[in-house]
């Protein structure tokens, strides 16, 4: 690869490393929403300046990115440099360790964006590569790698999935008229982008009120976009979701109904017979022991325990406010339609409530897009971004 006139060879090598690792990150992003409970990893193998192999974590989490890249590289991997977004694994699961595969392939150097905090790995993969005489570099583009796998990291370190709250409102923050009419506030381009958001998350979460009012199927309806069907989760403490709900009749993928313990089998059985999985979650308690609905943190811990790393919360107003009150919303995806309904319309969020501005949840804008006539603003929590990374 030419370094260009007057360019320092060391700087050129660093620039090449960054370019190849960015390409690996772009490959890893293809796996978001499809690899849970595994992380989404990308790998690029380069020899003599030419890419000889590329791979990313396959749907369902296997094969791993390194395995796929090595398969494509074949004999050309010997003496090459492998660029990997996360430390190669070193333990046996349903597939052999990726660190061993890189050693067996004869790669000369491995550039890793970040160390894997999984206790089964956590530096052991890097040590295995070094013990085999492979040159290892760690930390290039680490912030970007942490942002991409923020859901995996949060589940691993805090037993919680990454939560994105998606809202679609008028300019004045309304989701429906006073009579409840809401379809459609945003246009077809925004709705397609919302389906793409579903495809990049492991699950979509709604409250029972939204499930009853809209009877949605909650799947990603972009053909070929989500290789692994999105899990549909309904937070339903009172178990109001009927077995005839559209998501149980027509949608693709699992349906989990999160509800309080203690419902009799006669009430649960029709939902189970319709294909729903029941997830029992304790209720939060208010003053004098009065139940306040499902405990949002307990709900998310239950989802994380089942392997989910990225959850898209789509409403309604009570669910969104509950997650915000508990400090559990990591990211916001807010679609604004260029219209106004007024104070008698239905608000996007219930009361938080706040007495002082210092208690207000704060977010920093990370992206803007213009789907058709609408506006999509994306935000990351200022509180959580330092812990798990942000786009």
Automatic annotation (TrEMBL):
PROSITE patterns: CYT_DCMP_DEAMINASES_1 (PS00903), CYT_DCMP_DEAMINASES_2 (PS51747). It catalyses: 5-amino-6-(5-phospho-D-ribitylamino)uracil + NADP(+) = 5-amino-6-(5-phospho-D-ribosylamino)uracil + NADPH + H(+); 2,5-diamino-6-hydroxy-4-(5-phosphoribosylamino)-pyrimidine + H2O + H(+) = 5-amino-6-(5-phospho-D-ribosylamino)uracil + NH4(+). Substrate binds at residues 182, 198, 218, 314. It comes from the Bacteria. NADP(+) binds at residues 168, 184, 210, 214, 221, 316-322. The active site is at residue 66. The keyword Signal does not apply. GO terms for molecular function: 5-amino-6-(5-phosphoribosylamino)uracil reductase activity; diaminohydroxyphosphoribosylaminopyrimidine deaminase activity; NADP binding; zinc ion binding. Binds 1 zinc ion. In the C-terminal section; belongs to the HTP reductase family. Converts 2,5-diamino-6-(ribosylamino)-4(3h)-pyrimidinone 5'-phosphate into 5-amino-6-(ribosylamino)-2,4(1h,3h)-pyrimidinedione 5'-phosphate. This is Riboflavin biosynthesis protein RibD. It comes from Teichococcus aestuarii.
